[in-house]
Amino acid sequence: MEYIVETHNLTKRFGKEIAVNDLNLKIPKGEVYGFLGPNGAGKSTTLRMLLGLMRPTAGSVRIFGKDLKKERISILRNVGALVENPSYYSHLTAFENLEAVRKIVGAPKEKIDEVLELVRLSKAADKKVNGFSLGMKQRLGIAIALLNDPKLLILDEPTNGLDPSGIIEMRNLIKRLPKEKDMTVLISSHLLAEIDQVATYVGVISKGKLIFQDSIKAMRQKARRKIRLKVSDANNAYHALLEKGIKTDFRDNVIYLDEQSDEAVAEVVEILVAEGYSVYRVEEEQPSLEDIFLKMTAGGDGR
Amino acid sequence: MIVKLLAADFLKIKRKGLWLLTVLGPFGVVLLQWFNYELVPGRREWLLQRSDDDWLFYLQNVSSFTPLALVLGIAILTSLAASIENETNAWKQLVALPVPKMGVFLAKFTVLSSLLAVASALLFFFTWLLGIYLDLGSATPYAEIAKFSFYPYFASLPLLALHLWAATVSNNQGIPISLGVVGFLFASFSFKLPDWLPWKWPSLQNQWDEPLVNVVLGIGAGAILYTAGMLDFARRDVK
C-alpha cells in the first residue's frame, strides 16, 4: 500500500510532559483518515509536527515519501491545512484573505472563485470576514487550504463550533474531495460519530500513544454482538450453566453469551427453564463504536 | 519567494491604519514647528534673531521631535503589524505555507522598514515645504535636510528589529507595549542617556558630536539584532 504520510517514532515533549509518544502513523493514499482521540491526547501537536509548525523531539515524518525535515517547502506545496480554530484576517474581505495566501502559493487568480464556489462563499466574497459566522469562517479556512490544489488535506477539528447544518455541509465536502480531487484527507476529531461518518481509515490516539490504526471496517468488527440474558436468581443460573459446560460472562446480574447461533441461544434458554429459572429477557446487544472507543482510550493502551 | 511574501504582507496591512500613521508621523513633527514659528505673533522674528543660520536652527528644532516620533512610531507600527497575525493566530496558517520561516520574518521587517523609509522621505518633504514657507533664506540646504530626515531612521533600525522580535514572539502584547513606553521615556530624556543605549541613537547625539557614528551603529546593531530575532523566530514552535 502506498502511504502519503508515514511517521516513525514521532515524539514531542513539552518540558517533562510527553504530548506525543512514539507515534507511527501510516496514512494510505486516497483515504479519509480519521484521527481520533479525546481532547488533549496529542492530536493537534501531531498535526502541527506534520506541518512543520513544531519540531519533533524525536522521530521523523515522511510525507509523499520525502523527509519533512529536509524538504519541508516542497512538501508543503502539496499540502493544505486548517489547524484548529480558523485563522483569518478580520479586516480583509474573504476574497482578500484568499488573495493574501494565493500570492504566496502562486495559484492562478481564477482559483479563488473556484474555491469560494466549492465552499459556497461566492456571495460573501467581498464582505469583511469580521461579520462572518463561525461556520463561514471555518469554510473560508477550508477554501484557503484548497487554494493550492493539495494532494494532502489536513483538517484539525473542522466541525468544531459548527451548527448541525454546517456539520452536514462540511461532512459532504470532506467526502467529495478524495473522489473529485484525488486527495488524501487527514481529519482529526474527538467525536467518534464525526469520524464514523466520513472516514475510511482510523487512527486512535490516547495520552500521546497510537492505540489503534486500521480501516474503519476493522474497527467495526471489534464491535461484536453479545446476547444478554436477564433471568431470576442470575448468580445461581450462571453457575448452573457453567456446570453444564456453557461459558458465559456474568456482570451486574446479567448473563452475557458469546456464542450467538440460534441453536446455542435456544439451548441456554432450555437449560435455564428446565432448571427452574425464569427467563425475563433475551436481548441482542451491539456495542457502539463509541463503547469501543471509550474502552480503548480509557485503558491507555488496550491493544 | 520574498517578493510574494512582501506582496501578501502589503495586502494585509490594508485598512489597519499603518499607512495613515506613516503620513501622520512626519506631518505632526513638522506641524509642531509651524505652531512654534507661526502661532504666536512675533515669535518667528524672535526665533530668527536667535541664530545666524536660520535653516540650521529650524532643522534643529524639527529634529528635536523626530526621535520621539520614530520611537513611538516603531512601537505602534510593529505592534499593529504583529496584531494582524496574532489576532486569530494566523502564524500557524502562514508558517504552514510553502515558505521559509526566515522569509516570513524578513517580509515583516521589510514592510515596516519601508514604511519608516517613506515616513522619513515625507519628513524631508514636509520639512523643506515649511522651510520655504517660513522664508528662511534663499540657499536651501538640501543635504542638511536629508541628514536630519534620514539619519535618525538608520539610527533607529536596532529598535525596529528589537520591537519586531518582541511583538512576534510574545503572545501577550503587554510586553511589546511596555517596551514601547520605556523606549518613549528613554527617547524623551535621550540627552541624559549613555552613548551605548540604542534609544539615544535616533537623537544623533554622541560625545564626538558626529551624527554619522549613530548611523553606522544603527545599521550595524540593527543587522545583528535583526539576525538574532529572525533566528529565534525560525527556531520557535508555532502554537
TrEMBL record, chain A:
Gene3D superfamilies reported for this sequence: P-loop containing nucleotide triphosphate hydrolases
CDD domains according to UniProt: ABC_BcrA_bacitracin_resist (cd03268)
Transmembrane segments: none
Entries under SMART domains matching the protein: AAA (SM00382)
UniProt xrefs under InterPro entries: AAA+_ATPase, ABC_transporter-like_ATP-bd, ABC_transporter-like_CS, P-loop_NTPase
A GO molecular-function annotation: ATP binding
Family affiliation: Belongs to the ABC transporter superfamily.
Protein name: ABC transporter ATP-binding protein
Source organism: Parageobacillus thermoglucosidasius (Geobacillus thermoglucosidasius)
Lineage: Bacteria, Bacillati, Bacillota, Bacilli, Bacillales
Automatic annotation (TrEMBL), chain B:
Keywords in alphabetical order: Membrane, Plasmid, Transmembrane, Transmembrane helix
CDD domains: ABC-2_lan_permease-like (cd21809)
Superkingdom of origin organism: Bacteria
Membrane spanning stretches: 18-35, 55-84, 105-130, 150-167, 174-191, 211-234
Classification via Pfam families: ABC2_membrane_4
Protein name: ABC transporter permease
Organism: Parageobacillus thermoglucosidasius (Geobacillus thermoglucosidasius)
